[in-house]
Specification:
2 copies of one chain form a homodimer. Chain A has 391 residues and is of the alpha/beta class. The first copy, chain A, has 2 domains: 172 residues, Carbamate kinase, CATH 3.40.1160.10; 134 residues, VC0802-like (2-Layer Sandwich). The first copy, chain A, has 11 helices and 18 strands. In chain A, the strands form 3 sheets. An 8-stranded mixed sheet of chain A has the order 3-6-2-1-9-11-12-10, with helices on both faces. In chain A, helix 2 runs antiparallel to helix 3 and helix 6 runs antiparallel to helix 7. The longest helix of chain A is centred in the first third of the chain and has 25 residues. Chain A is globular and about 65 Å long. The interface between A and B is large, with 37 and 37 residues.
Chain lengths: 391, 391
């Protein structure tokens, strides 16, 4: 008998009949003798609809109230999921993040999980009840409702897997697993059967939206077997595990991030550290830093966050220039920092297309090129061919 | 400085811009120096939409999960209301029923409030924060989320008014107040300026949907000044207060209930008490009992609850007959049990239209006629004229 966490994403839960479809899969697993804990996101576009109502009221809703608003989403999906399982004669109870003891920091809209109390979860499991847990949400020490930010339901699933020492944590979505390259860019993209935590972490950071990076970090720290699986077919998906368990390859995959902006900020007093501190204390996700000289730092952020960035740094900067339509192409694998051939091929491809390049960044498992949007497809398609990622 | 509870119904909160409209009224009250506690229902048709999703999954969803599902509704409206007030520079915090300590019985979908803990409510008020409270919901002793049944938000408002010893509890809706007769039946219906708790309680029981009866009971018990007011204009509405404060009239108003069924149940063993106990332990709202003989009891229920009634009594009955399209016309006022003229007029009107009458019921403040649907308008319009309720 195994204990399995199954997390279902919003697209997979978009309608009551899709919920019932997934509940049947869970029921089959339970009836086969395994224990299952289900973690759900909000249904379909619910979260976006709730955000849009808030925006009709104010462009700057209080983060506390946004958390209260958005947590209605999983409340709806979890109760409908529980009703479906009960209908299928599998006794189920839904629990909010607060009820199941997901204790977080106080940081509204982007809280971190501090601990899992989980008493009600354990007693439900002991009584043979299948718990349906609201992903994405928790409760702070001061009893305020919090949310974990985008992709937070993955984090909930992995944190519960760690708490329960689950045998497996499965993340279900509308894609078949993790691909060597975004299938929307190259239809020859191949499904990756196995990938190491580290490689997956970088893929996630660098644009593969299948898993949230934080969930991969927690999985690695607690050595949780993590799988990305399809909601709508029976495929095996992608297994994320320790590097020693799998064959290493030079380039495992290519991730791309688009709709970015490169912002050059000039500080009057050359105090880069204080500028960095300002950025760090904001809620902005800074993709990359490029320190050009001691006076200018270049920052890559999502294009629609540029105004937020500017308002958080305006006190500290004398001049600003903005480059829109920036993209990052990242090559992930053990070879990118050790195999001279890999870098050689990438450089040749970049040269062949005369791509504007604003920076190269390399780390143990990743090589990233900051370039302009129009070069993304050309570079990544040609590289996918060169590194045999399609076929 | 007064402390005022303001409860807003779902129709009044149907869109973000309607919420903002009401938030402006609350902001004006706060800025005038009063303290306000806001209680909200779910927006517009949210509750019905959630119920319809549950019905797509199963016709008999678990009541525990229904409560979890439906409480998402007020969560959305309260956070949007709080955002609106904050936008208007009135510091506001939203709280769920559980957060604000509405402790209820364990009875899912129809729980009763046992007590109000209210610590977070008090500390918010002390800090000058306007609390926005989810109506309709609470938490049981075993920490399960519960709901108070239809109209439960009125009950939340009045229970909070009692707990806080509020100076006034205002129930806002899309009608101007309590009318002498349903304005959809007679457009000459007059707004009642003042009505006693007892009269209002009977009006509410007998079909006036403006206030939930339980909320009137609590208001009377704790002597809370209760007002029914319009959300969309500045009218004074109806004040519900002690009988000694207001002029008594023979007939204050007429209430009608339609879409009822009269069900005759025959017990084999003449054990009416055990049949009544079965009915009483069900979740059905029984409108009236008519004991015909020692073997048959006639029960009036909502037409769409007849099947529920039959399934709860099937063990105990040998035969059943059902009369659909039943309606009850009730005359409320101090005169109905004391003034022979009142009963005389009502009898003449009933006779004039040759109405089918299945029963007359009278109590201190009410006289009800059980009749068929087609006679409702004729009887009530003619009586409204006779008792000067229109004009």
């Amino acid at each position: 008998m195994a204990l399995i966490i199954k997390k279902f994403g919003g697209t997979s839960l978009a309608t009551p009949s899709l919920i019932m479809h997934l509940a049947k899969r869970v029921a089959a697993e339970v009836k086969s003798g395994n224990k299952v804990v289900v973690v759900v996101s909000a249904m379909g576009k619910t979260t976006n609809e709730l955000i849009s109502m808030a925006k009709q009221i104010t462009n700057q809703p209080e983060e506390r109230e946004m958390d209260m608003l958005l947590t209605a989403g999983e409340r709806i999906s979890m109760s409908l999921f529980s009703m479906s399982l009960n209908f299928l004669n599998v006794k189920a109870y839904s629990f909010t993040g607060s009820q199941v003891g997901i204790i977080t920091t106080e940081e509204h809209t982007n809280a971190k999980i501090l601990s899992v109390k989980g008493e009600r979860l354990l007693s439900a499991l002991n009584e043979g009840i299948t718990p349906i847990i609201a992903g994405f949400q928790g409760v702070s020490g001061s009893k305020e409702v919090t949310t974990l930010g985008r992709g937070g339901s993955d984090t909930t699933a992995v944190a519960l897997a760690a708490f329960l020492k689950a045998d497996l944590c499965e993340i279900y979505s509308d894609v078949d697993g993790v691909f060597t390259i975004d299938p929307r860019i190259n239809s020859g993209a191949r499904l990756i059967n196995q990938i190491s935590y580290e490689e997956m972490l970088i893929m996630a950071h660098m644009g593969s939206k299948v898993l949230h990076p934080r969930s991969v970090e927690i999985a690695e720290r607690y050595n949780i077997r993590l799988a990305v699986k399809p909601s709508f077919n029976e495929g095996d998906g992608t297994m994320i595990t320790n590097a020693e368990n799998i064959e290493s390859v030079s380039v495992r995959g290519i991730s791309t991030r688009q709709n970015l902006a490169l912002v050059n900020l000039k500080t009057p007093d050359s105090n880069i550290v204080s500028l960095m501190k300002k950025l760090n204390s904001s809620n902005l996700n800074i993709e990359l830093f490029i320190t050009k000289t001691s006076e200018i730092i270049s920052v890559v952020v999502e294009q629609d966050k540029v105004n937020d960035l500017l308002s958080c740094t305006e006190d500290a900067c004398t001049s600003v220039s903005i480059n829109n339509d920036i993209a990052i192409v990242s090559f992930i694998g053990t070879g990118v920092s050790t195999d001279k051939d890999v870098l050689g091929k990438i450089l040749s491809i970049t040269e062949k297309y005369s791509a504007d390049v604003f920076g190269f960044f390399t780390d143990k498992l990743v090589l990233s090129i900051v370039t302009k949007q129009p070069y993304v497809e050309k570079i990544s398609n040609e590289a996918a061919k060169a590194f045999q990622l399609i076929g």
